[in-house]
Amino acid sequence: MTKKKVGYVDAITEIENILSKIEDNELDVDELSDKVKRVSALLKICKDKLHKTEVEVENILKEIED
Hints:
Blueprint: H1 8-23, H2 29-65
């Protein structure tokens, strides 16, 4: 089974859904632990994507200046 790569928008949407369930007390303790781990992984994906995008934009701007 291959792991589907999660995009930035999908990650943000999933984080928002999980946070909504946490805020509404819809998760039991077992689910809460799993969801917090999932949010942590999703935040890493978002952070990495933002960093890569920042580097790409900086490179494009440098090319324009040259």
